[in-house]
Design a protein that fits this description.
five-stranded mixed β-sheet, single chain
Length: about 425
């Protein structure tokens, strides 16, 4: 397998990896345009735009787009995150040119038809309503906003209802014109692909785009705080976040291993202590997420009203104890989990395609798998314990939802973390 990259004269980047023996391929375009690139009055437009890309172009109707790849057994999809929007497809080898043509068409030539816009506006309002009615989803939006208050990084990807209700065609055109520049796009492909053919096609499709001057996204600052909404629900939902490292931070891989030790599976500390020993919850998890200039360690659990205080205290105590007695056995297990997840993911062209785009966006190169494994292996016990001790020193972000009257207050959680 070989990774090849190419940059067009206008800054548009291409990365491919041929995977011998496969008869299918994944291909997509990743755009550096997520909710952190939106103004306050634009919040939600990157996600709405992703939806509208499928609703018609200058040459294809919405039905044409839907049928184009399904008629050949492939599929087309997209997503919006805080820092990226992705449009991608999975097809058989012979249909890679078709997939690229369709993806480039929906990215470059959307028409924002007024009728389709109103239909999709209703769809997104339903999506927002569904999230708001799902406690273990909405609590993460609240946690993000509490961690990064009054900042683009803290705003919801779907945006508020009032924004979605008023977005117009001109608003979409403004956002596209400012953010969908060639230097902000990456074309990634993996599987049964031919690098030279894709570069040639990309040159024809994207080579004529003009680069535009684009300001950097507003810097993010983890602040912490609490949001608490008491509601008559079956479960009390508890989420806690601490500031973690950014993608390029030296502690990036340490943070990933730390989160796995804490709550990355049924053998993890939080699962064993909170669920297996004390029976406080059904689900408890921890994960480390990173952004361009910040990051978060996030812990989430759902429990009963009578157990919320104990669960919160156990969670904080396990965070504190980790700095003192994380073991080599736990480190080795988390390291094995991380490497296995990386290597197993590489067996899928879809996972490999996404990884290529993401790492190229972060490092402007594609680190080899061996390099990544070396960095994972370089995390020793002393470094892990030091990180576990340092991460609890900052102000936490806490979100509580449901019958949470008995949960400890924010100051008590913050004091317990540093005690």
């Amino acid at each position: 397998m070989s990774v090849l990259t190419h940059r067009l004269a206008n800054g548009f980047r291409i990365v491919t990896e041929h995977m011998p023996g496969l008869k299918s391929a994944s291909i997509g375009i990743w755009v550096k345009a997520g909710c952190r690139h939106e103004r306050l009055d634009q919040n939600g437009i990157a996600h709405f735009l992703e939806h509208m890309a499928f609703k018609g172009t200058t040459t294809r109707s919405a039905l044409d787009i839907a049928e184009s790849l399904e008629n050949v057994g492939g599929y087309l999809n997209a997503y919006t995150s805080r820092e990226m929007t992705a449009y991608y497809a999975r097809v058989l080898e012979e249909d890679v040119p078709l997939a690229l043509d369709v993806i480039s068409d929906i990215v470059l030539n959307p028409v924002f038809d007024p009728t389709e816009l109103e239909i999709e506006r209703g769809v997104i309002l339903q999506e927002i309503g569904m999230v708001n009615d799902t406690p273990d989803e909405i609590i993460f939006d609240w946690l993000q906003n509490t961690a990064y208050p009054n900042q683009p990084m803290g705003r919801p990807i779907l945006g508020p209802v009032e924004n979605v209700q008023r977005f117009s065609r001109s608003a979409f055109e403004e956002f596209v014109g400012h953010h969908y520049a060639p230097g902000e796009m990456i074309l990634s492909a993996a599987g049964a692909v031919d690098h030279d053919a894709i570069v040639m096609a990309a040159e024809a499709l994207f080579g004529g785009l003009s680069q535009v001057r684009k300001g950097s996204a507003e810097a993010s600052h983890f602040a912490g705080g609490e949001v608490r909404e008491v509601r008559d629900l079956e479960q009390a939902h508890f989420a806690l976040a601490l500031q973690g490292p950014a993608y390029l931070d030296d502690h990036f891989h340490t943070a990933q291993i730390h989160a796995l030790v804490l709550g990355g599976g049924s053998a993890s500390r939080l699962f064993q202590e909170a669920r297996e020993k004390r029976g406080l919850c059904y689900t408890i998890m921890a994960q480390a997420g990173s952004f361009e200039d910040s990051g978060m360690l996030t812990i989430y659990a759902g429990t009963g009203a009578d157990q919320i205080a104990e669960l919160a205290n156990v969670t904080v105590d396990e965070l504190k104890r980790a700095a003192e007695d994380m073991s080599q056995v736990e480190l080795d297990r988390a390291r094995a989990q991380m490497k296995a997840g990386l290597l197993m993911g590489l067996e899928s062209p879809s996972s490999r395609c996404e990884r290529l785009a993401r790492v190229l966006a972060i490092w402007d190169r594609v680190p080899g798998v061996e390099e990544t494994v070396e960095k994972i292996d370089a995390v020793d016990l002393n470094r892990l314990r030091e990180f576990a001790g340092s991460i609890t020193l900052g102000a936490p972000a806490v979100a509580l939802y449901g019958p949470v009257d008995g949960a400890p207050d924010y100051d008590e959680v913050a004091r317990r973390l540093v005690a």
